[in-house]
Amino acid sequence: MKFNEMTYTRPDIGALLARCKELAATAAAAPDGDALVRLYYEQSEAFAEYNTAANLANIHYTCDTRDAYWKAEQDFFDANGPAVTNASVEISRAFLANPHVDALTEKFGTTCVAGMKNAVLSMDDRTVELQQQFNALVSRYQQIYGGALVELDGKQLTIPQLGPYKEDLDPAVRRAAYEAEAGYFDAHRAELDELYGEIVKNLNAQARVMGYHDYSELSYVRMNRIGYGPEEIRKFRDQVANDVVPQLQKVMALRAKRTGIARPTFTDLPIMFKDGNPKPIPGYKARMDAARTMYHELSPETAEFIDFMQDNELFYVESRPGKMSGGYMTSLPSYKAPFIFANWNNTSGDVDVLTHECGHAFEGYVAERDPEVPADLECPGMESAEIHSMAMEFLTAPWHHLLFGRDTDKYALLHAEDSFVFLAYGCEVDEFQHIMYQNPDLTPDERNAEWLKLEKKYRPWIDFATSSANGLISMMFTPKGLSVSSLAILICSRRYSAFAFIAEIMPRPPASETAPANLPSEIQAMPP
């Protein structure tokens, strides 16, 4: 069924909550392991219609944040989603209380019960009102970003559409693109700064209600991290800072030599080659035809997958006014259909996001068709899911020539370098989030100062000293760097049930404006 033929009906929340109570009671009383396993499949399917409706509403809303009808439907899920989430947690609680719960581990592996334990530790009906407020704040952010239009080159452009101008070989064009973007976020600076502070305090309030010191603690269970915690993450960040960043500085020195820009400033960072960055073949149809050929030659399984995706029009990837920025993959369980959202802007990032999100989508497509896999377990942990997406980026490398032609070798180098550089950026954002939740009363200027410290730690090659003219430095640190990049990661996931994450949107470093996202779906990782 094509996407535009999929019907949407607002779900009956009362009926769903009643069904959740029935399932919880049945789980608590299940007489043996076999009965508990059967019930796990049953409760997993119980949320299919609700999650399909919630995801359809969110897809339509993020495709055009100006649409009043879909804004109202998004508001409906913002208000009712927390109650559904917490009702599903009560089912998990009942499973865990059953003396035969080990049967679930025997049937489904070690992450099933551990995931339910995290669900119980992550949600509480005392936080419903705070969760509703959080969802409303997310929608406010999406409208601010989705509504962004800037004037450049005699045109009105979305933020993603500035990408090619930021990669122009003329420094004046690049600077003009950044200044146009800065102008929009400067105009919304106060609103975004306020929104950021409200979100940090809201999530910390949820954490305190549940007995955590702050949200940096609660976030680990909400991301369903199993077997590692803050100390292990801190050690990983330290290793990246101490061992990886020095190697990245060598990479950046090689880039400077390659481009002929001896002292690259912030606005020079997108330039990767002296004769211009690799560009994908033009045209939506040409790219989709190339993708079909690529996945047909990769394997019979990916051939079936890409035919399903394209024949049912499950890609919405071109940037348009009103569309939320970034990229994500989500799932429509009732139709066993993945959906890919992106913002192509005619840069190499278009291929990044195509292959990345197809990695997520292929995993979802295969899992949804395996009758042995319950819906709750179709997606791995939020970080494990990135194995599928990043692997797909590289597994498709032998066919990238179909998308880049003579620029294929340039793209191969750029892609490998950017994947390496992203290690530092990801750690930078992760450490920043810990600092924000642990210091919620920082002023906007103090938040910016913390970000600048981390830039020097994780990306010391960026020269901000010469970027202060015409508002560029303020764009990077306040509205763009914090209120957009970090704010997007802070609020990137909505949780409609204990098992459904949607629409993670995570902007990449300035050097590659098109998001992998990202930011999220059942699917992408939200740093704490």
Descriptive notes:
Helices cover 61% and strands 6% of the residues. It has helices spanning 13-29, 33-46, 48-63, 68-97, 102-108, 110-122, 128-146, 163-166, 171-187, 189-209, 215-222, 230-259, 284-298, 300-311, 349-368, 385-395, 401-404, 408-438, 444-458, 472-477, 481-490, and strands spanning 150-152, 155-157, 315-318, 328-332, 337-344, 494-497, 500-502. The strands form 3 sheets. It has a 3-stranded mixed sheet, with helices on both faces. Helix 1 (13-29) packs antiparallel against helix 2. The relative contact order is 0.14.
Structural category is: mainly alpha
CA-based shape: globular
Overall mean pLDDT score?
Answer: 88
User: SSE order in H/E notation?
Assistant: HHHHHHHEEHHHHHHHEEEHHHHHHHEE
Radius of gyration: 23 Å
Which range does the strand content fall in? 5-15%
Low-confidence stretches: 468-528
The count of β-strands is 7
* Number of discrete helical segments: 21
Any descriptors?
21 helices, single chain, two-stranded antiparallel sheet, 528 residues, 61% helix, disordered C terminus, 7 strands, mainly alpha, three-stranded mixed beta sheet
Write the layout of secondary structure elements.
Layout (H helix, E strand, L loop, with lengths): L12 H17 L3 H14 L1 H16 L4 H30 L4 H7 L1 H13 L5 H19 L3 E3 L2 E3 L5 H4 L4 H17 L1 H21 L5 H8 L7 H30 L24 H15 L1 H12 L3 E4 L9 E5 L4 E8 L4 H20 L16 H11 L5 H4 L3 H31 L5 H15 L13 H6 L3 H10 L3 E4 L2 E3 L26
Parallel strand pairs: 3-5
Antiparallel strand pairs: 1-2, 4-5, 6-7
Helix pairs in contact: 1-2, 1-4, 2-5, 3-4, 4-6, 4-7, 5-6, 6-11, 7-10, 10-11, 10-21, 12-18, 13-14, 15-16, 18-19
